Amino acid sequence: MNDMAQVARTAGWKYQLFRSVKYATYLALSFNVYLFFEQELLASDVSQLDALSVTAMVQLFSATLDTAAWLVLLLLFELETAILPDEKLVGLNRWLIHGLRLVCGAAIVSAFFGYVGEWQVFFEASSIPAAPCTLVDQGWTLLTGFDEFAPLDATSCLTIGTDALQITALDQVVVSPQIFTDAHDLAMVDVINAGAWILVVLLLEIEVRQQLQGGLPARLQWVFNGAKALVYATLALAAVYWGFEGDFLDFWDAALWLFAFVFIEMNVFEWQRELGAQD
């Protein structure tokens, strides 16, 4: 086998591995939609919000909505930056992709306000009306972690102490002061994380649109790269925080999303390289 054939074979093997890892990551993110829905469905059972209200549904299922919308948006970016050739990104195809992206963007912004509403749940708490163990078998629930609930029973009531709190915005939910503070902080990080991802999609949207018009000027590209590096660093810090706080699903989801957008950034970089080679 000559050297050129060996290089082509090696490049083909690496490309297939790259694609396999990329699409396995996308599949794992799809499963996370179900995991968030399962978690938030349990949390919705103890909420005082009107389940028939659209605003309430967005708040109750903000992570599910956010993850599902981001998954569709991710696939659209994949389609536009790696699958469809430039000559296909015109006319009806372009309008369909941008229209779907606009819908996903609206869902993501709605989910952001859902996260804000969820954070506000942990703004206020009051003393419970009686000792924790006297509330057993009266329909009370114990918050054991952020979006994690368990029935208040004869065993769990002993774990929260006499300084337990009742969360004002939830229906008969008790919590220890420490768990309440931790949940408040985790909800705040959710808001920061969601806001940072909105900035990511805005930057990528501008960059992709400019690519279709020949690419960004070199000086502006450096500005965009710097801005994206700062936002991605914020997202990485949020993932690390979730890892240390023991919220595995949020940590796993955040790590997967960062990994997935590495692929999108690589797609954009390759796209830029191809355009540069054509000039």
Question: Roughly what percent helix?
Answer: over 70%
The run of helices and strands is HHHHEEEEEHHH
The rough form would be described as elongated
Integer tally of domains: 2
- Uncertain runs are 1-10
Mean pLDDT: 80
Strand order of the largest sheet: 1-4-5-2-3
Q: Measure the end-to-end span.
A: 34 Å
Q: State the major sheet.
A: 5 strands, mixed
Number of strands: 5
Protein traits:
single chain; 279 residues; alpha+beta; 7 helices; elongated; 2 domains; disordered N terminus
Layout: helices, strands, pairs:
Blueprint: H1 3-44, H2 54-60, H3 62-83, H4 91-121, E1 125-127, E2 141-145, E3 148-151, E4 165-167, E5 173-175, H5 177-211, H6 218-245, H7 248-278
Parallel strand pairs: 2-5
Antiparallel strand pairs: 1-4, 2-3, 4-5
Helix pairs in contact: 1-3, 1-7, 2-4, 3-4, 3-7, 4-5, 5-6, 6-7
What does this entry look like structurally?
- This protein has 7 helices and 5 strands; from the N terminus they run H-H-H-H-E-E-E-E-E-H-H-H.
- The chain is α+β, with helices and mostly antiparallel strands.
- It folds into 2 domains: 18-124 and 178-278; 125-177, no CATH class.
- Strands 1-4-5-2-3 form a 5-stranded mixed β-sheet, covered by helices on one side.
- A hairpin with a 5-residue loop joins strand 4 and strand 5 (173-175).
- The longest helix is centred in the N-terminal third of the chain and has 42 residues, at 3-44.
- The chain is elongated.
- The protein starts with a helix and ends with a helix.
